[in-house]
User: What shape does this take?
Amino acid sequence: KNGAHLPVDETVGDEVASLMQLMLPGDTNGAGIVQAGVLLKLMDNCAGICAFRHCKTNAVTATLDALNFSAPVFNGSVVSVIAAPRFGSSRSLEIEVTVTAENPLTTARYTAAHGFLTFVSLDPNGRPLPLVPLPEPRTQRQHRAREAGRERYERRKAARELSRRTPA
Assistant: This one.
């Protein structure tokens, strides 16, 4: 196991992406804890690679959903980021991202952050492109992840509609 929410054998397609990086003093605050923005950048980069692998076009972040920082990451930790597509509509792709931190001296690992980022595919003029459907889920876990992604998509869609109808 890789210590993250996304077991490699339970992912869909070849779009899965991963990054590893050693956290250095420039990544941390005065207490030696890695800044949230550093982890967020790694998550967005990894999810962007995942989206590009699926779309084969320029893909940009549209939303960040349910991002949870569950444990601090410290200077000297090795951070692993894994991103996998979970749900695709005709115009957007939801990607689950998990950050795992490892103490290189003890090899102890823990989940430090987890969230969902949604990407849209753009043509060279910056116009949204239709997405190729994700491969069909092969396992029960994949089916559950796809259905949960569909539910999050429907909630985001309803919230967008509500905000369009609500005067500022």
User: Anything to note?
Assistant: Residues 6-11 have pLDDT under 50 and may be disordered.
